[in-house]
Amino acid sequence: MAAPRKYPDELRERAVRLVQESGCPIAHVADDLGVHREALRGWVRQAEADRGQRPDLLSTAEREELKRLRAEVGELRRANEILKAASALFARELDRPGRSRDHDRDSW
Question: Is 31 helix (H, G, I), strand (E, B) or coil?
Answer without folding.
Answer: helix
